[in-house]
Amino acid sequence: MSVPVFSAISPKDWDEPAWDDAVAILKKYRVEKYILCPQHWQGYSNIRLTWKKVQFNKAGLEKLPQDKPGLYVFIVQPNIAGHKAINFLLYIGETTKQSLRDRCTSYLFEASKSKARVPIRSMIRKWPDHLWLYFAIVDDVSIIKQVEEDLIKAYIPPFNQRFTARVGKAGKLGDLLKEVL
Description:
Largest sheet: 4 strands, antiparallel
Number of strands: 4
Radius of gyration: 19 Å
């Protein structure tokens, strides 16, 4: 029995199998690792970036510069009731050797790769119609990696594996907790 996702919120007269189906659907879209830490936001290096937005699809990615390096972030935007301020930052990346267009276009094929990065493939498959890419040109390639690290530390995006890997080691998690407590 197929159950609409939103009707799962109020089961009332549902039988147990229908409820289990609805819960399974909702769990598929669950993102467990959102951390909103003002102390980390305050620690950002204050390098001001100019962000532009395109939808994450072939037509949107063709609008990216073909000859510029920079930073990019993946955002899910539900756009419910026209409310454009509700966004969920999932991933932060950088490119110094490829253009923003080449690097970000490579993600289009991530969902179909046999050895895809699981968090990236998951993000693309789960929210294909609601995934947006924000990008910022950074001409000084010597600062791009540091700015990316600073952004990852400030936002702690749930799909960045580098942060997840650090948190997964007990010593590093303790260091993080010392910073915020």
